[in-house]
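User: For a benchmark we're assembling, each entry needs the component sequences followed by a predicted structure for the full assembly. Here are entry 17's components. Please fill in the structure.
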Amino acid sequence: GNSVTQMEGPVTLSEEAFLTINCTYTATGYPSLFWYVQYPGEGLQLLLKATKADDKGSNKGFEATYRKETTSFHLEKGSVQVSDSAVYFCALSDRSGGNEKLTFGTGTRLTIIP
Amino acid sequence: GAVVSQHPSRVICKSGTSVKIECRSLDFQATTMFWYRQFPKQSLMLMATSNEGSKATYEQGVEKDKFLINHASLTLSTLTVTSAHPEDSSFYICSARDSPNYEQYFGPGTRLTVT
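Assistant: Structure for entry 17:
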């Protein structure tokens, strides 16, 4: 079956530090890949996505590249801010069987210190 | 943007009772809604998928008689946990989408505690 593995948290960084959150996946076929962010007290929000190999998703300074050869979709940001503190989920969607399902990683809690 | 609400945000119930959780799409029509369950420090696990006007499709291992899902309108889906037990205590999250090609929009979740 499909699975997503992401680095365990929590991750604590100083403001303006470089961020990488690793994500690897196992899937049959050609899934789409996503990063969701959950701010305190809010629902998950789509941060970025990539639908095919070598695509790069980007939003709010975050980037992730769909790497089929390494089955990875690592999240990066060059200079984090305190407002980036949240839980980040890597996910994939599988449209096999005609019904799109999301499979999530366990989430990584990120805390940015001023 | 698309907004999905859940009610209540927190609920405490006694073992053996039933509790209903509502999921509403506030500014779009949700042809499909999803219900997830999240345990502490674990990922969201899909419980079931519901399409408006039809029966929900449950994931393997999810008891359909315990977790009753109704998607009676294009803006409302409900999850009823029947005869709740302490092991049903969890964080329940719904999502909704208006087309097979569009993203899922997530509600803020409902924390259920069964005592």
